[in-house]
Specification:
The longest helix is centred in the N-terminal third of the chain and has 7 residues, at 39-45. 10% of the residues lie in helices and 26% in strands. It is built from 3 helices and 10 strands, in the order E-E-E-H-E-E-E-E-E-E-E-H-H. It has helices at residues 39-45, 143-148, 165-170; strands spanning 12-16, 23-27, 33-36, 50-54, 60-65, 69-72, 78-81, 88-93, 96-100, 114-116. With 182 residues, it is of the alpha+beta class. This is Glutathione-dependent formaldehyde-activating enzyme. One of its GO terms (molecular function) is metal ion binding.
């Protein structure tokens, strides 16, 4: 494995959306990783910023299951996402494509090294690490709620078929038939 702080990481990287309808593989080096604070990225990601990594230097980006939907967010930029669950996947501009770091199966190995859109940076972002925190399993008030959760989220690795038949049979109204699952 490459140094997580490296701007250039060789290899094969996989990922996908939350529901598993869209999966991808990136072959070759990842480029610089960044976070963008611009208002358009905040809205596209529904978050404080957009964590992205360039794939323009990769040899190949393949959609291994399903296909991303695209939203033309400006005259020059399209944003890829899963049409089933809404997971943000790509930022596509004339100079190349970047992918959402959180959509990779191992996002912890991709370390942002620069920031963009500082004019729209939310004033409290620099202080998030100062907030008190609790691990999920330590939230006593949520114990019963957490015990009842059955996750339908796709695991952080490729699967031959998704969703599993057991989930489809239990909740057929919540899941769509997926093409390209085999």
């Amino acid at each position: 494995m490459s140094d997580p702080g490296s701007d250039r990481m060789p290899g094969r990287f996989t990922g996908g959306c939350q529901c598993g309808a869209v999966r991808f593989a990136v072959e070759g080096p990842l480029g610089p990783a960044s976070i963008c604070h611009c208002r358009m990225c905040q809205k596209a990601f529904g978050g404080f910023f957009a964590p992205l990594v360039s794939v323009r230097e990769a040899r190949k980006v393949t959609w291994t299951r399903g296909e991303r939907a695209l939203y033309q967010s400006s005259n020059l930029v399209a944003r890829g996402f899963c049409a089933s669950c809404g997971t943000p996947l790509t930022y596509e501009a004339p100079d190349g494509m970047a992918m959402a770091i959180g959509a990779f199966d191992d996002p912890g190995m991709i370390t942002p090294t620069l920031q963009y859109g500082l004019e729209a940076k939310l004033p409290y972002v620099d202080h998030l690490a100062d907030l008190s925190g609790t691990r999920t399993e330590q939230d006593i008030a949520a114990t019963a709620f957490l015990a009842d959760i059955v996750s339908f989220q796709h695991p952080d690795h490729d699967t031959a078929v998704w969703p599993p038949e057991s989930v489809t049979m239990q909740h057929p109204d919540q899941l769509e038939t997926r093409e390209n699952d085999a």
